[in-house]
Amino acid sequence: MQSAECRVQIAECECRVRFIFLLITHHSSLNTACERTFVNIRSQVLLWGAQRVSAMVLALCVVIHLVTIIYAVRNGLSAAEILGRTRGNVGWLAFYAVFVAVVAIHAPIGLRTIVAETLGWRSRGADIFVLAVALSLAIWGWRAVWAVFY
Amino acid sequence: MNNDFRARNHPAYWAFIVHRVSGVLLLLFLPLHFWALGQALHGEARFDGFLRWTEQPLVKFAETALVLLLAAHMAGGVRLLMLEFLAWRDWQRSLLAIASGASLAAGLAFLLNVV
């Protein structure tokens, strides 16, 4: 037997799903209604989805990363110990390459929301800035991954 | 104390603040982290030199804070995903406490290993 509060929560969830479906199916008419939106509605829904999917992958990556960190520092860090684990190891290369890629998707989308809601910066300039952050993170991160693999 | 603050002063609001602040701080830290790992491109000795610098107590303290931030952002994010994608159940009220506990446990485990 569901409580009244539970039924309200389920109704809210269903309402949210219907709203997202509406955004996807009616994005062109909503775009006309939202002239101040620089990224169209469909793209905003895609950004929302990318943020959530990347978060799911990141949760797994971060757990593995935290366990590795806590294990690795127990006798102090040394280059020999770190590089001994990562150099020539395709498994760690693939893991960290995916980790960086997902961070480069997740972090800039979060940053975009924060600069919009906290600083009120909603413009094409903000989107270009966030895209630049994403590309910098990806390139700079993959460079680091390569540094400990090569 | 105005009414706005009283309306916001509850655990879920503070979880929202922690999630945002930890996200921004982790994003600011990432370039430094990538730069540090990139030292390996200049040879093992240079990388080792940097790692020796990290053995200072203040750096270890900062690293512990970073581990805490990472764990808090991850646990808070998993809580949000569960609230958004799973059907509501009463036990989800405890997610905030579980997320806080898991973050503190990760921070403590790192601190105990690094000192």
Topology readout:
The complex is a heterodimer of chains A (150) and B (115).
Chain A (H helix, E strand, L loop, with lengths): L3 H22 L1 H7 L7 H32 L6 H8 L3 H28 L6 H26 L1
Helix pairs in contact in A: 3-5, 5-6
Chain B lengths: L2 H6 L2 H28 L5 H10 L3 H29 L9 H20 L1
User: Biggest β-sheet of chain A, characterized?
Assistant: none
The radius of gyration computed from the alpha-carbon positions of chain B, rounded to a whole number of angstroms, is: 18 Å
CATH architecture field of the largest domain in chain A: Up-down Bundle
Number of helices of chain B: 5
Characterization of the model:
The complex is a heterodimer of chains A (150) and B (115). Chain A is mostly helical. Chain A is built from six helices and no strands. Chain A starts with a helix and ends with a helix. With 115 residues, chain B is an all-alpha fold. Chain B has one domain (3-114): 3 helical TM bundles of succinate and fumarate reductases (Up-down Bundle). Chain B has five helices and no strands. Chain B has helices at residues 3-8, 11-38, 44-53, 57-85, 95-114. The mean pLDDT of chain B is 92. At the A-B interface, helix 1, helix 3, helix 4, helix 5 and helix 6 of A face helix 2, helix 3, helix 4 and helix 5 of B.
Keyword list:
heterodimer, A: 150 residues, mainly alpha, 3 helical TM bundles of succinate and fumarate reductases, 0% strand, B: 115 residues, 5 helices
At a glance:
Chain A has 150 residues and is mostly helical. Chain A has helices at 4-25, 27-33, 41-72, 79-86, 90-117, 124-149.
